[in-house]
């Protein structure tokens, strides 16, 4: 398994906030994340807009979309948006890619059949990569066709050339099912599932590796990530109440035993033991998404200062 260190990310829940982000940048946190829907059922943000706020309101950390529902977007347009954000941020953007589908009306509203979301995501990722490589490129696929397009990322003030990384931002695939695992192995720069147990995470790692072997892909540099709903409190019972209140209704009133497998909650010592199981299963960058409605900064602080130091990469098997 690649990676000899464990890094921590944090989701900016419920919305990106300048003071919250400034506080997180003072912690041993490597990344901050936000996603979003186009037509969510409530007043929450959209992924590219939120990503723009993250890039504007941070200076040090990597910033990520968790996740961008790529099939809802025209890929040439979003390629330009993401390239500009990566350039203006000094190459700090990472794009978590998902297919969505839980809100069918979003797809109907933008004229995308929900049954095409997987195929459109694959083709969209290919188009992003082509445009980010630079130079005139063409594409003739099932959903999009063009010749001789050249994308020019914006130049940050004072820069002679764009600061976008060569090849553009990493594309990290999210999901929980076999098609997403195959997409990660074939097209992704990393794998970032969510709402899975450590055992399920281990199985997903194996599935990605097996698919990569089948197609002859070397996964050197591939990122093994985990997006983890979580609550950490000095009072472990309060943390468990956080998760039950935050996720129980949002994900179909899942019973406590199920939530306990997929959303760790408790004291720093209790949560560290649960996160170590994900590390043992292969995760190297864990994004903590505070599963609470208040004091989310405290959860991130405890994760960074009291949980992260307790985690260790397993010794390699000889």
Relevant terms:
globular, alpha/beta, 318 residues
Walk me through what this model shows.
InterPro entries: Luciferase-like_dom (IPR011251), Luciferase-like_sf (IPR036661), SsuD_RutA_monooxygenase (IPR050172). This is LLM class flavin-dependent oxidoreductase. It holds the Pfam family Bac_luciferase. Keywords: Flavoprotein, FMN, Monooxygenase, Oxidoreductase. Residues 18-247 form the Luciferase-like domain. It is built from eleven helices and eleven strands. The chain starts with 6 loop residues before the first strand and ends in an 11-residue tail after the last helix. The longest helix has 18 residues, at 198-215. Helix 6 (178-187) crosses helix 7 and helix 10 packs across helix 11. The chain has helices spanning 18-25, 47-56, 75-88, 104-110, 117-133, 178-187, 198-215, 236-247, 256-262, 268-281, 296-307, and strands spanning 7-11, 31-34, 62-69, 93-98, 137-140, 145-149, 171-175, 190-193, 223-232, 265-266, 285-290. Strands 1-2-3-4-7-8-9-11 form an eight-stranded parallel β-barrel, surrounded by seven helices. Strands 5-6 form a two-stranded antiparallel ribbon. Helix 3 (75-88) links the parallel strand 3 (62-69) and strand 4. The radius of gyration is 19 Å and the shape is globular. It is α/β, with parallel strands linked by helices and 318 residues long.
């Amino acid at each position: 398994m690649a990676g000899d260190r464990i890094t921590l990310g944090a989701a900016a829940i419920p919305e990106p906030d300048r003071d919250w982000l400034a506080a997180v940048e003072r912690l041993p946190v490597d990344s901050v994340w936000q996603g979003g829907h186009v037509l969510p059922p409530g007043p929450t943000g959209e992924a590219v807009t939120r990503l723009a706020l993250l890039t504007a309101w941070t200076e040090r950390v990597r910033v990520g979309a968790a996740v961008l529902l790529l099939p809802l977007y025209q890929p040439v347009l979003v390629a330009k948006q993401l390239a500009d954000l990566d350039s203006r941020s000094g190459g700090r953007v990472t794009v978590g890619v998902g297919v969505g589908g839980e809100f069918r009306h979003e797809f109907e509203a933008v004229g995308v059949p929900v049954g095409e979301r997987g195929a459109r995501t694959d083709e969209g990722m290919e188009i992003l990569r082509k445009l980010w490589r630079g130079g005139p490129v063409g594409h003739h696929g099932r959903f999009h066709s063009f010749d001789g397009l050249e994308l020019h990322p914006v130049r940050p003030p004072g820069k002679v050339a764009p600061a976008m990384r060569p090849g553009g931002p990493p594309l990290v695939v999210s999901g929980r099912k076999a098609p997403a695992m195959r997409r990660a192995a074939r097209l992704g720069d990393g794998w970032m599932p969510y709402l899975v147990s450590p055992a399920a995470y281990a199985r997903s790692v194996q599935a990605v590796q097996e698919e990569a072997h089948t197609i002859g892909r070397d996964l050197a540099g591939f990122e093994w990530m985990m997006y983890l709903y979580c609550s950490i409190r000095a009072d472990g019972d309060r943390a468990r109440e956080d998760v039950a209140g935050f996720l129980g209704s949002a994900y179909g009133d899942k019973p406590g035993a199920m939530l306990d497998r997929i959303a760790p909650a408790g004291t720093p010592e209790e949560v560290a033991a649960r996160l170590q199981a994900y590390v043992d299963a292969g995760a190297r960058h864990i994004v903590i998404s505070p599963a609470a409605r208040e004091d989310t900064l405290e959860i991130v602080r405890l994760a960074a200062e009291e949980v992260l130091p307790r985690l260790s990469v397993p010794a390699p098997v000889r």
